[in-house]
Amino acid sequence: YPAHNCSRYRLEDRCIIMFKAVAIASILVSLFFSALARGHAARADAPNAETPNVVLVFVDDLGYADIGPFGATGYETPNLDRMARNGRCFTDFIVSSAVCSASRAALLTGCIHERVGFRGALGPNAQTGIADTETTVAELCKSKGYATACIGKWHLGHHPKFLPTQHGFDSYYGLPYSNDMWPLHPAAIAARNKDPKSPSIYPPLPMVENNAVLDPDVTADDQKLMTRDYTSRAVSFIESHSERPFFLYLAHSMVHVPLYSSPEFEAKHPSGPYADAVREVDWSIGQILDTLERLKLSQRTLVIFTSDNGPWLSYGEHAGSASPLREGKGTAWEGGVRVPTIMQMPGTIPAGTVCDKLASTIDILPTVAHLIKAELPVLAIDGKNILPLMIGNSPSPHESIPYYYADGQLQAIRSERWKLVFPHQYRSVAGQKRRNDGNPVNYQNRKVEKAELYDLDLDVSESQNLIDSHLEQADALSRLADRWRSELGDSLTGKKGLAIRSMDTMEPNDALLGDR
User: Fold this and answer.
1) Of these residues, 100, 111, 141, 150, which one is catalytic?
2) Which of 29, 62, 238, 443 has its CA 20 to 30 A from that of 431?
3) In this structure, are residues 282 and 268 in contact, taking their beta carbons and an 8 Å threshold?
4) Which residues contact 354 (CB under 8 A, 6 or more apart)?
C-alpha cells in the first residue's frame, strides 16, 4: 500500500477482524445457551441420584391384627417390627374394596374401583381386564425414567393385553390371579368326591413371565417356594437397578389360601400354617430392607407395606384376624376394608411414629406422583397426596370415602370420624366354630335393616349404633353419599353413575394367555 494509507488499512483490517470475532462469539454464546437449555430440559425429564425409589409390598388377605405392630399374638414379625420402628404405622388406612381385583385396580389407578369398572375378583374364564386408557402408578414412574417391575399376583386380567407389561411395567413374574383358582380348590375337590368324572371348575394354575406362560401347571410344591421365589426376584431387581430410580410392586400370593411356606418355615411354628406363612412374608420384608441398607438406598427409598383386604374368616385357623374390627374380607365393615399399613423412608418419614388419620390405597398414586414430580393422569382419580400425613400431623385430605361392594352397592360411607352404613345384606361367620383343615365354613347372610351410624374414633368395633342421637352427622354423610351416587351410581337405590369408566374386553383377534 502507499505509505500515506498504511494506518487506514490497518484500522480497516482490525475492524474486520473484530467484526468476525464478535460474530463468532455470538454464535458460540447462542450454541452454549441452547445446549444449556437442552441440558436443563433433559435433567427435568431424566431421573437423578436423589429421585426416590418406591417399593410397594401388597400382601393378600392379611388381617388388621396379623403383624406385630398391629397387635399380632402367638408369633413374631421382627422385620415388620423393625420397619415400624424406622417408619410410620397408619392405623386408619383403608382399601377401596374388600376383595382382590377391585382392591388392586384401586391401588394401581388411584380410583375408587367402581370408577374404573372393577367389581369382585376376576377368574380364569374372565374376558375383561384393566383398560388401556387407565394410567397406573407404574406408568407414571416410567414417564419419569424409572425401571419398573411387577412380581407376584396381578389379578387385573390374565390375557396379554391386560398383563403388567402392557400397563407400565418393564417386567412381570407371577400368578395372573389367586393361588386357589386351580384344580385343588376345595369346591373342585368336593365335586370330584361326589363324582370322579366331574370336570374341574378351574384349569391348571399358570406361572407367567412377562407375556408368556412360564409354567402351565403350578403344583403344591411350587407354591411352597413361591414367597421365596418372589423375594429372590425382588432382591435381584433392586440390585440390578441400584444406579437408577426404580418402582417395585411386590404382590405376595400369601397369605391367601391355600397356605404354603418353604421348608425353612413350614410347620415350624406351633400356631400353625397361617403363622408360618406370615412369618415367611415377614422374612421377605427383611430381605428387601437388608438389600436397601446394603446398597445404601434406604434413605431415598419409600417402602410401603399393606394388604389388599381383611382376613378371609370362613377359612378359620387358615385365616387371620381383624381384631378389634368387625367382620372381614367381603364386607364393608372395618374388618374387611381397614388394613395394617407401614411406610418407611428414613430421614423423610419420622421413625417410630403413628398416623391415625383416614388414608387409603387410592392415595398411593397421587402421592408417588408428587414425590417424583410426575403429572397426574388425565382421567379423573379419587386419591389424594398424603405426603403431609406421612411426614407430619395434617388432617386427612378426604372429606369422605365411599364403601362400594357386590354389584355396585354403596354399602357405607365415612368421614375421618363418622361412618354411615346403609341397609344392605352381608355375609358373616360369627358364632360358627373355626375349622383348622383348610376348608371353609359356609357364610350366613345377615342384613342391616336401617341405616346405622358409628363413631369410629370411640368405637372402632362398630358395636354401638348412634344414628338416633347424631342425626346431624348422619344427614351430612347422607348428602355426601348422594354426591358419590351421582358419579359412581348405587345399585341399592337404583342410581346410575355418570362418571363410571369400563374395563377393556377381549376382542376376537386378541392374543390369549398361552398363545405363542
Assistant:
1) 100
2) 62
3) no
4) 88, 89, 90, 91
Confidence label for 70 from pLDDT (cuts 50, 70 and 90): very high
Identify the bridge partners of residue 454 per DSSP, sorted by sequence position: 419
- For 442-458, give the DSSP string: PPEEEEE-S-EEEETTT
Pairing of strands 504-505, 128-129: antiparallel
pLDDT (tens digit, 9 = 90+) per residue, 448-502? 999 999 999 999 999 999 999 999 999 999 999 999 999 999 999 999 999 999 9
Partners of 56 in beta bridges: 249, 304
Q: Active-site residue among 113, 155, 158, 424?
A: 155
Task: Note the pLDDT tens digit of each residue in 74-105.
Answer: 999 999 999 999 999 999 999 999 999 999 99
DSSP string, 339-387: --EEEE-TTTSPTTEEE-S-EEGGGHHHHHHHHHTPPPPSS-------H
Residues contacting 441, CB < 8 A, separation 6+: 314, 316, 429, 432, 433, 434, 435
Verify whether residue 141 is a known catalytic residue. Answer: no
pTM: 0.90
CA angle (173, 116, 513) in 5-degree steps: 35
Angle at 403 between CA 309 and CA 424, to 5 degrees: 105
Give dist(CA 488, CA 484) in Å, integer.
Answer: 6
The Cα–Cα gap between 249 and 149 comes to 6
Q: What is the mean pLDDT of residues 170-190?
A: 97
